[in-house]
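note to self: dont lose this again. the chain is below, predicted strucutre after it. 376 aa total, dont forget to put it in the shared folder this time
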Amino acid sequence: MLHLPAPHFRPDGYHGATYRDDAARAARRRIAEALAREHGLALVEDWAMPALNVDCYRMQLAPGQSSAPVLEALAHDARVKWAQPVQSYSAQAGSDPLYPVQPAAQPWQLTEVRKVATGRKVLVAVVDSGIETDHPDLAGQVAIKENFVDGQRYASETHGTAVAGVIAAHAGNGVGIEGVAPGARLMALRACWQSPDGATRCNSFTLGKALNYALLHGAQVINMSLSGPDDRLLQQLIDVARARGIRVVGAFDPTRTDGGFPASYPGVFAVAAEGAMPHAGNVLAAPGRDIPTTMTGARWGMVSGSSYAAAHVSGMMAVLSELKPRMPLTELRDSLVTGATSLDLCATVTRFTGKCTCGCTPANTSTSAANYVRTP
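---
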């Protein structure tokens, strides 16, 4: 995959074109085709990344061709911004009838929190496999639906549907579960696909396209319940998100020493399932075991894994974004309240509002959230 910046793609004697001009992009495409020929590669597809002001070109090696010398040669080509392999990623899976058994319902006091905020109109990008948008608990919750997996139609899939339910399932509709932020609006960005063995797979190119779309279409929270190796393209897109104050949430991967990317990347809210907390002070804990949520086929089921812990925190971020949408990310991180085993949404909302809103009693006359004692 090549990333070609606009300034390098001006044909001789051509002046005045901008990044988005069709003629300029056609010129960049011709150079990509030339590079492919020179290195014996097949140009498979390309995608504009306006968020980074680059075009991405995905190329395929010839049978038996080694990637290392090709990447080395491209790295020294003045026409190329950078070249990298396409990385692979995988999901971290593991009133309403099911609401009483939702692990976050009582500890996070969701009923009380909703009297203050529901994530109303906050746009949450779910970068995942496809969401069943007509599920009884999700119908009307998805504002945008896009597919970034080439060669496939948009599909309703297990992992994306389950993550979406944790974040924003309807509250009070008499069926199923209730999301942490039922007032939020979802962007269903299908960048992953369900493989025949049931696993959810993605790659850096599909994820990059989805992140670029989220940045261009106003996402305030980005949920990435997945893990894989470090990736330069995705890092740069996350940098843009952070610079804009977008809350990016990633699932901690316990099989990787660094927790996996994007959870390991600076500024990302890394989340592990409570009870499986890694020895890392910058990793948040949230409910992630035996979670009831939405499933394909208009059903509900139980799931476990840091994917769903991350979804809880994305819902939490939507609630907090409704209250203070412009709070800087570092200040937001410092304002999160942690209980005995996981984050405490109720206490965090109390800290944000300066009022005892979640079934707590004042320990003294101060209005600081730290001076409130939660009632059992």
